Amino acid sequence: MSETSSTQQWGTRIGVVLAVAGSAVGLGNFLRFPGQAAANGGGAFMIPYFCALLLVGIPVGWAEWTMGRYGGSKGLHSAPSILGLVGGGRSWRNMGVIGVLIPLAVSFYYTYLEAWCLGYFWQFANGGIGIDISEPVADQSARAAEFYGHFTGRGANGVIAGGSFSTLVFWGITFAVNIWLVFRGISKGIERFVRFAMPAMAICAFVVLIRVLTLGTPDPAMPEQNVVNGLGYMWNPDFSALTNAQTWLAAAGQIFFSLSVGFGVILNYASYLRKNDDVVLSGLTASATNELFEVGFGGMITITASFVFLGAANMIGAVQGGTFGLGFTTLPVVFAHMGAAGNVVGAVFFFMLFLAAITSSISMYQPPLAFFQESLGWSRKAATALMVSLCVIGSFLVMYYSRDGLFWSTIDDWVGTFLIFVLAMIQIVAFSWVFGIDRGWEEAHHGAQIRIPRFYRPIIKYVTPTYLLVIFAAFCWQNLGTWVQSVLDEPLRQGAIALIVATGAMLFVCTKVGERRLRAAGLDIDGRMPAGD
Amino acid sequence: MTVLGWTFLIVSLAFVWGLTIWCYYKVFTVKGP
Asked: ipTM for the complex?
């Protein structure tokens, strides 16, 4: 019998740190970050990037860790309950539904993307994806794009009709592993796994990094295509980019999505801490780990390797291809150029991506699972069955409506991007203005092993909410019109919105049921009791 | 790769590696209150 939600706890400090870091480290660290940096000023991008880390990423993270542990100390583990407790009322609890909707809805498509990583790992471990390097680079890229389209079912709806049956098999394996790990519980499942997966991911990243940095000048006929110039393509600063608002927006967005703040995961994970466990150092360590993978590995591997083999002329297309274009069409061509070792490097790279993805996806299943247990009063087994049913429905819709990735990318836009901004703003306002910065500061420092520098008090109260609001406003100004129009124009996108609304409505009803149940059980769900009770 | 490119690369790497090592050092060595 697995542990019940209310009795679960992390076994070790390092376990929760690695679990939160694992949740944050994902595909974006290795694929999205380098593309964003290269396209937005290179080295100069790091100035707004680190500003956003220090002014938004780390402060919101501390707020989430603190609120999560506070909720856990009152026996509450879901975002609606914790925000209701911290905000002191029903409206905050209702807004907290977003904190369950985000991980649940994102999991509908994330496991599918994770299956791509496993599938590509399998392909490279068994001889690659059939790229002939004697052909022109454009033909090699076309072959890689063809394989990608076939494997992911982009050609037509239905991953089998538009793609291959093997994608479904890899999804089934991926989903089963995720559910098994989450069902085993916080300590025996998630914690044990991340303690293996995070070091393994670091080792894989090291192996690939060393291979990339020792590539030298693979083609003597093209001496300009070397490692140093590849690093230069990524890191040479273009200071004119700093005068462009887009650069600051891209940097803040990258930090924001990379750290997994505003996702609802940290609230839940931190609720399994003991009352006097540290949150300040743990939160900072998890953020630092994410940055190490992003800047230390992501910033050194992808662009550099692509430049060395493809040259500056092909880099613009590679960078503009975005996260998935870079990862699943450009890099396979790069690995093919590495000769006999290319398949090994490719296999290690995609296994690393798979580990990055699975440590993120398991963190998406735990919050809804805890929510169903808490709101419906169900056993872990029954709550798991409900969650699996929802995820299977959601994921099959994603895989069935696979044409051009429109269905899942709509969920990614509206839930995995838009709602994350909304939840982060709700959380930082609840923490610093409703709960109160004085109370929040004191709560954060219960059992803290380091103190947050005092200048962070005004930052958390004024600067972080303002920074977030400005980014959000700029983001909406830039994207919302196009997004709304694309939904109005495309039935597939309307279907995705319907799925999001239906899932949100169901979670809202569960929250209402839970409200009655928890109140009847005598829990302080509105935060009426004095602090410390 | 320009001098400024090297500078941004080295400073960024030093920051993330330094912060990470410092954090894990604290996690493994500092006892709670």
From this structure: 0.95
